[in-house]
Amino acid sequence: MMSSAMRARLRALGLIMPLMAFLLVFFVWPLATMMVASVTDGTVRGVLPQTATVLAKWDGEGPPTPEMAASLVTDLRMPVDSLAFGDAVRRLNSELSGFRSLMSRTASAAKGAGEGQALDLVAIDPRWGDAKYWLAMKRAMPLYTDRYLLAAVDLERDASGNVAGLDANTSANRQIMLRTFLIAASVTLLCAAIGLPYALIAAASKGWVRAILLIAVLLPLWTSLLVRTAAWFILLQNEGLINDALKTIGLISEPLPLIFNRTGVIIAMTHVLLPFMVLPIYSGLLTIPANLMPAAASLGASRIKAFRHVLLPLAFPGLMSGSLLVFMVALGYYITPALVGGANDQMISSVIAFFATGTANWGMAGALGLILLVVTTVLYLVYGRLSRSPTMVAT
Amino acid sequence: MTLKRTISTIGAAGLALSLAAGAASARDLTVVSWGGNYQDAQKKIYFEPFAQKLGKPVLDESWDGGIGVIAAKVKAGEPNWDVVQVETEELELGCTDGFYEKIDWDKLGGKDKFLAAGAHDCGVGAIVWSTMLSYDGDKLKDSVPTSWVDFWDTGKFPGKRGLRRGPKYSLEFALMADGVKPADVYTVLRTPEGIDRAFKKLDEIKKDVVWWEAGAQPLQLLASGEVVMTTAYNGRISGINKTEGKHFKVVWPGSIYAIDSWVVLRNSPNKNDAMDFIAFASAPENQSKLPEYIAYGLPQKEAAAAVPANLAADLPTAEANLVDAVALDGAFWVDNVEELTSRFNAWLAQ
Questions:
Q1: Are B317 and B287 in contact (CB under 8 A)?
Q2: What is the mean pLDDT of residues B13-17?
Q3: Where, if anywhere, are coiled coils annotated (chain B) (predicted)?
């Protein structure tokens, strides 16, 4: 008895092994890597170990000491993997712009001069006389850091180590994050407003009408996102089909600004995401027994009343899962805002893409992703609570 | 596209690469360039003839730049690209970060055969290309823009303007529109006041700008009349004029020219073939064929000298086109691109 249950469980486990392996390799592992990347910071100390020790003792006050300069030269003379050195320089440059040219100049001077020979760093580059470069190096030494996470929400540690707001001129992540949620929410609402009636009609119709209605939803789903976005580009532009048609029938004289603004982004995203709203509602409606509405009518409910008290509550779970699906997918949109949006419509994934592929600052990309993940999870939990209660009432 | 996908793509690419590392030695030489009609031309004059000479296939792919892409490939171990054409700051960044193999200059006949900016320890110049003001000659006839001051003058030339999204080029052009002489642009930009000044100037046309990202977009914007003028790459403009009979015009004074270079990725399994390919693509008899297809300048001096005069006049390297043109300051952007892009993004979001 025990062993057969065990065997069944093992077999079940064996069956989901491919799935587990897939999730681990393509979901958990990359996610964990990015999370770790967003809080660790060992690159500089790995390449400049002696400088790290000396700088740890420096109080950060007053001019740079000869001891600091000597330890830096010693570290730079050590044979080091060029990739690791590059990582360290990139990290330093993101702390304070200018370290790239400074470090490559200094490293080649240190290697060029004879072993053991003292070097005047200020003569190599006058920037070494400025304490702010040494301070930046000191800040880059600890193994764990919260700088990426802070920077992801427009904060930083000031010179005395307190958390302070970043200059509004240098970072607008909070604003872009807020905008991302606003756009995703508007798209979700619009999808619900169009998707619910659409699914109701599709579920109520029969034969070829239903087939056509479903094909109209599914066909776009099978088309590449890029193609659909490009199609909206053609439709929405000033001399595009929509503006031309409106001008021909004399409704407008000047083209409506439909593209490179929020309107264009919302229209295109709503179209692209509509199937994710229609399909869950539709499949939910199909499971409702066909005799419920006649039953309600036979009990004396008017059509409107039957709709409000019978059909709508039963469609609610589908509506909720559709909304969740649309909202979550919309949060990550990148291509559509980039092509049909204006400067003020870029969403957080464009910032993440900039750090990931543009500058190889994976710590920053990971931190932004982590913040997005946390906020989304919190929203999901809130949503879970909110969406549960109406369903309970319905059943 | 989504965050999850971005992350898992990076992870998956890494995994796939490390898994493939053992078997990758059989992979054919892979050359990566910038796509479009430019890469078509390269295929005809470089990739196909070189494959014949080599007796093995040469694969070609295209990309849109970004040092992060290179970093991901190199850090995964053995990269699946060999030769890549990169922009100035990717060359500088990747070279300091150790992403590229050092160039074997003996195979290329020495550095002095090339323009100074095209002879780098890590890269060999492939083309000289310009970013400049351009407009549709069929739409603007009577009064035409001649400078960045005109680009900023929305009273004289009403309509939207196209600019490449990002601080690079935008800040330089803004300063020139504000009266800075082309030769002084980077001196001014190296001061905090200069950067403030450029952003303040950009404020003036912020609501009139359509920001583009890919090189083909400004052509589309001009053709559809969405913008009255835009910045664009000179080769693409002359290319579309040739193939589609457009009359797009370019303004050479105030343009910014830069060199794209061939690099070989670190630990490339085809390193020797890669260096031979670069030598082949830099040989005067091969490189001098390029301007026939697309109007980019040639960094190899003998190749540049062999270009027929009628073609040479359209190139960014022509004497007349260099008057008041600015050379992109790679060192400036290597140090400042990240900080200024953050600021630029914040400025856009406000």
A1: no
A2: 48
A3: none
